[in-house]
């Protein structure tokens, strides 16, 4: 996941400095103050992703502060990277140099994560991402660029690629699949991991198109020439919606599908409901309401809105840090050691325990489908 930078270095620094959020009442002044940080897209086209993840983190912190009133006050510094690697490289130095911060939830997107890693590795700042899925970050064969500070909750694109193809072709007689990426590292990588899982005779073709594309006629012509009855887009929702609309407007009636880069509540607002009806999506996330209706109700009550995409994974990531803080951890070195030895349960009941490279063992990819203008959970991809 990624996006373009839209604000200046000075503005970014000012935003980060102004974003210290105390999520506990002032009466806790005598308690020990611990500072964590969140990094993700909080403004720009993909702000809904970051805002949803941030809300998950703040919810977990709110519960922790209430439970530990008088003992701990956890604060959260917000870093807006807009999902853009260039912007991430601008805000990361300020986070890294803030010695009060002992753990970071994020970055949300893989490209932004990679851009920030040099700064966080230099300052030994632990990271736990709720949604960065690029394999290379934790792959020893690719240099394991996130080691030793990076960890993540969701499964990687190595798992998502085959699952996306499987979901897109489910129930389709004689599928002929055309796959389009957006030339981003995320989109291209997802295709690379999908290709080995494509059965002989089911590939109708591939196209790689810039995420700045507004006229999709050339790609649509290729899809029609290939007589594809399934189209998979591996980019992001701001481009997926107009692409799918132009495809439908051209008369295409087959299956439309996308990965977690398309899975955003904003996606369904960017094209008519009739265009997006039936779109199939995959992601390594589980909606909070599907985990526990009471938990979702409590979240909505405390945060003033329903939970969003990757809220559960953000809560899980934050809870790892909070468990360490409850044990008395108050420095980066101690936090990194605690995270690496952590073993606990996620909200779904699975075990969170990071391997030597920062990945969690297992992890299912889930399916989603657009129905009546809403993205509905459709269960694990099987």
Please give a quick description of this structure.
By secondary structure, this protein is α/β, with parallel strands linked by helices.
Task: Give a verbal description of the structure.
- The chain is α/β, with parallel strands linked by helices and 382 residues long.
- The chain folds into two domains: 208 residues, Rossmann fold (3-Layer(aba) Sandwich), CATH 3.40.50; 142 residues, Rossmann fold.
- The protein is built from 13 helices and 15 strands.
- The strands form three sheets. It has a seven-stranded mixed β-sheet, sandwiched between helices.
- Helix 2 runs parallel beside helix 12 and helix 5 packs across helix 6.
- The longest helix has 21 residues.
- The protein is globular and about 70 Å long.
Write the layout of secondary structure elements.
Layout: H1 9-18, E1 20-22, E2 32-40, H2 47-67, E3 72-80, H3 85-97, E4 101-105, H4 110-122, E5 127-129, E6 150-152, H5 157-169, E7 177-181, H6 185-194, E8 203-208, H7 217-225, E9 230-233, H8 237-249, E10 255-258, H9 273-276, E11 280-283, H10 288-291, H11 293-303, H12 311-326, H13 332-341, E12 344-345, E13 351-352, E14 366-371, E15 374-380
Parallel strand pairs: 2-3, 2-4, 4-5, 5-6, 7-8, 7-9, 9-10, 10-11
Antiparallel strand pairs: 1-3, 11-14, 12-13, 14-15
């Amino acid at each position: 996941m990624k996006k373009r930078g839209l604000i200046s270095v000075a503005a970014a620094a000012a935003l980060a400095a102004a974003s210290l959020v105390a999520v506990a009442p002032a009466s806790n002044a005598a308690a020990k103050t611990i500072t964590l940080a969140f990094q993700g897209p909080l403004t720009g086209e993909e702000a809904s992703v970051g805002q949803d993840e941030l809300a998950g983190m703040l919810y977990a912190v709110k519960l922790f502060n209430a439970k530990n009133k008088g003992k701990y006050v956890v604060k959260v510094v917000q870093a807006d990277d807009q999902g853009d690697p260039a912007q991430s490289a601008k805000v990361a130095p300020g986070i890294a140099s803030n010695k009060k911060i002992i753990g970071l939830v994020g970055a949300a997107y893989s490209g932004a994560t990679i851009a920030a890693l040099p700064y966080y590795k230099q300052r030994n700042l632990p990271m736990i991402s709720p949604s960065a899925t690029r394999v290379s970050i934790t792959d020893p064969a690719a240099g394991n660029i996130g080691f030793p500070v990076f960890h993540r909750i969701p499964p990687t694109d190595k798992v998502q690629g085959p699952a996306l193809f499987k979901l897109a072709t489910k129930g389709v007689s004689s599928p002929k699949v055309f796959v389009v990426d957006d030339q981003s590292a995320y989109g291209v990588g997802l295709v690379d991991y999908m290709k080995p899982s494509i059965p002989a005779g089911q590939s109708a073709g591939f196209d790689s198109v810039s995420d700045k594309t507004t006229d999709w006629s050339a790609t649509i012509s290729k899809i029609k020439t290939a007589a594809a009855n399934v189209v998979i887009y591996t980019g992001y929702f701001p481009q997926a919606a107009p692409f799918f609309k132009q495809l439908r407007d051209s008369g295409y009636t087959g299956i439309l599908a996308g990965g977690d880069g398309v899975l955003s509540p904003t996606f369904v607002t960017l094209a008519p409901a009739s265009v997006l009806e039936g779109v199939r999506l995959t992601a390594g996330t589980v909606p909070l309401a599907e985990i526990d209706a009471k938990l979702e109700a409590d979240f909505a009550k405390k945060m003033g809105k329903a939970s969003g995409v990757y809220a559960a994974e953000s809560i899980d990531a934050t809870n790892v840090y909070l468990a360490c803080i409850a044990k008395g951890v108050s420095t980066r070195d101690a936090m990194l050691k605690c995270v690496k030895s952590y073993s606990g349960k996620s909200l779904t009941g699975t075990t969170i325990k990071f391997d030597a490279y920062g990945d969690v063992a297992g992890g299912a990819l889930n399916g989603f489908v657009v129905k009546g203008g809403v993205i509905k959970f459709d269960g694990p991809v099987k």
